[in-house]
Amino acid sequence: MALKDYGKVAVLLGGESNEREISLQSGQAVLTSLLQSKVNAFGLDPKFEPLSKLAECSRVFICLHGKDGEDGKIQSYLDDIKIPYTGSGFHASKLGMDKLLSKNIWKKLKINTPNFVRLEEGMTYDEVCKNLGSSFFIKAANSGSSIGISKVTKPQQYQAAFESAYKVDNTVIAEMMIFGEEFTLPILDSSPLSIVEIRPKTDFYDYEAKYHRDDTEFICPAKLDKVLVDKINQLGMKAFNALGCSGWGRVDFMINNQNEVFIIEVNTIPGMTSHSLVPMSAKQSGLSFDSLVLKVLDTAYA
Questions:
Q1: Which strands make up the sheet holding 172-176, listed edge to edge?
Q2: Catalytic site residue 52?
Q3: The domain 116-176 belongs to what CATH superfamily?
Q4: For a designed S-S bond to 282, which of 95, 158, 287, 298 qualifies (C-beta 3.0 to 4.6 A apart)?
Q5: Is 203 one of the annotated binding-site residues?
Q6: Which of 145, 146, 150, 246 is catalytic?
Q7: In a 3-state reduction of DSSP, which class is residue 2?
Q8: Right CATH for 96-110+179-297 from 3.40.720.10, 3.30.470.20, 3.20.20.70, 3.30.70.20
Q9: pLDDT band at 202, cuts 50/70/90?
Q10: Is 252 annotated as a binding residue?
Q11: Kindly report the CA angle at 27 between 26 and 29, in degrees rounded to 5?
Q12: Choice among 19, 88, 146, 150 that is catalytic
């Protein structure tokens, strides 16, 4: 049971982005948890219901992934009607959603992130190779859940990868491939939780591996020595704070064969599904799913 009165809480879920399916799963899990904790909560899907219904709420738990949820739009709306909400504010959400903007900020601050270029129509595979080498990822700048991401290792893959990303967002980047292991650092109440190592059986940690396959292996806490963990916690928080993020989130990173850490991206509204990494890490830190949900709700300062 919740130890304090949160008032009436709306859980925003679904929406109209290409991550709608995941948002519905996250939102339903959060809503079920809040009701179990005796919080006066209800779900609202902006695809079918007016946002004006939020005016009757005391707080909003945002589970909208992707466009309109993580790009600052809903945060701006809630700021205007003066209703507290979970997670980062308008500006930080916009930066976190946009891989090009966030990577440019990190580059200026000398926060290690893989080299990248913005792709323009007509740029050739050979031109990209001059900057990034012959193996790289092509990514839609404003998308999550690995939608619009392709691995490119030969010229024949280049054009199709660009077109796939461009269908998702008209800002497309190419990012140098880091050869090493993939990890994530969940953050709660602006403090790092246990690091999770991700070992996908697919070519990389794509949409299928994230949400549909059951053979992706997760090691939590990751088997890293304390010195490296301290370095990652410090770097991850620096990357998170550099964008102005707050409350909770997730910093994805890679470690190459020389033990160099590369920040890949920040996720300001992580998934809360059965496959999601923040609940896994929180559990390792002694937090049940219900306790985690209430702690995230606490980031909506009333």
A1: 116-119, 172-176, 136-140, 149-152
A2: no
A3: ATP-grasp fold, A domain (3.30.1490.20)
A4: 287
A5: no
A6: 145
A7: coil
A8: 3.30.470.20
A9: low
A10: yes
A11: 65
A12: 19
